Amino acid sequence: MKKYSALLLMAALLLTGCAENKEAPQNSSGEISSVLSDSTSSSSTEVEQNSFDTVPDESSAEPLPFPLFGADNVQITFGDVTEMLDKEGNALTKETLEDTKWYEITCGGFAYLAEPTVSLNSVDDADMYDPETLLFSGAPDYTDTEYKRYKVGDKFGDLTVKSAETMFSRISYEEKDGVLTTEQIKAEGMCFAGMLRGCSVEFDGTVTMTGYMRVCVSEYGVEEGEVLFVPDKDSLVLPVINFHVDRDTDSFNTAVWQWPVKDFAYATEYPTIRLGNINKGVDISGIPADGTSTKVSVTVTNVSMFCDTYMSSFIDGEIVFVEAL
């Protein structure tokens, strides 16, 4: 399984890695990530109003006619689904759906979130950090985080889910003439958990956190002026949306990123947290904008999250107030 998470680590590096910092992200075993070369995008099409509704119908508990389950290991039902497409982007209905025909399935109104457990840094947790290996002792490669389904209206601490969507895809389950059958998937040693492509979610509410903020300067794949933030271990108030597939157990867990950036390093389950750009009107008066990491208290609103197991995961928010500590 580690090679799949390593691919995702490097995909995140392409978007958030520092040009000034030549170290690649590592796990606690010191493994260096490799590059994910394939990414796919699908065409979208308007779903016809046939016997399949475009709005989730929670009263329909009939399961799909093949194994398909989310990060909570619960089988997906027709009541969860808002859209089903074949490989050419054509809409499928309940009557035309077959295991070897579908390519993407979208579910509306929910996403999979988990409670965070790890967020360390080389300043506050210096006793756990080795500057020679650039790794934190005792930090796991993965955590067995329990993901749960959060629906629109559900609360996570001070945040309330405003909108959410979950997508399943058969990108890794293709063959020359279509997609693999259930028997072929099992024969190839692949798993059904891998069909969960990703989630997106938006929240109402505000949260206040302490941690380390830096403004990106001359960094590969990141706009100059981008404001990034890493919570400390006392501010784990945001949910985690950063699931990965354990192909040995056909289940989900969460990777722990370990990132060295200049003279600062951190290990966390959170993906990159972006809080706007100082070149686009974001005010962080009193916080250095030279790429160094500064301990701050920050209040954030309009939080949104995105997780794609074939690309990168992000958390975005808007700064209400920030001050250096």
Description:
The protein has 325 residues and is mainly beta. The chain has helices spanning 2-16, 182-187; strands at residues 81-86, 102-108, 110-113, 119-121, 129-130, 135-136, 142-143, 148-151, 155-156, 159-169, 174-175, 178-179, 196-204, 206-215, 226-231, 243-246, 251-255, 257-261, 264-268, 272-277, 294-308, 313-324. It has one domain. Helices cover 6% and strands 38% of the residues. A 5-stranded mixed β-barrel has the order 14-15-20-22-21. The protein has a 3-stranded antiparallel beta sheet with strand order 4-19-18, with no helix packed on it. The longest helix is centred in the N-terminal third of the chain and has 15 residues, at 2-16. The chain is globular. It starts with a helix and ends with a strand.
In short:
With 325 residues, the protein is mostly beta strands. Helices cover 6% and strands 38% of the residues. A hairpin with a 4-residue loop joins strand 21 and strand 22 (313-324).
Question: What secondary-structure arrangement, pairings included, does this model have?
Answer:
Layout: H1 2-16, E1 81-86, E2 102-108, E3 110-113, E4 119-121, E5 129-130, E6 135-136, E7 142-143, E8 148-151, E9 155-156, E10 159-169, E11 174-175, E12 178-179, H2 182-187, E13 196-204, E14 206-215, E15 226-231, E16 243-246, E17 251-255, E18 257-261, E19 264-268, E20 272-277, E21 294-308, E22 313-324
Parallel strand pairs: 20-22
Antiparallel strand pairs: 1-2, 2-10, 3-8, 4-19, 5-6, 7-17, 9-10, 10-13, 11-12, 13-21, 14-15, 14-21, 15-20, 16-17, 18-19, 21-22
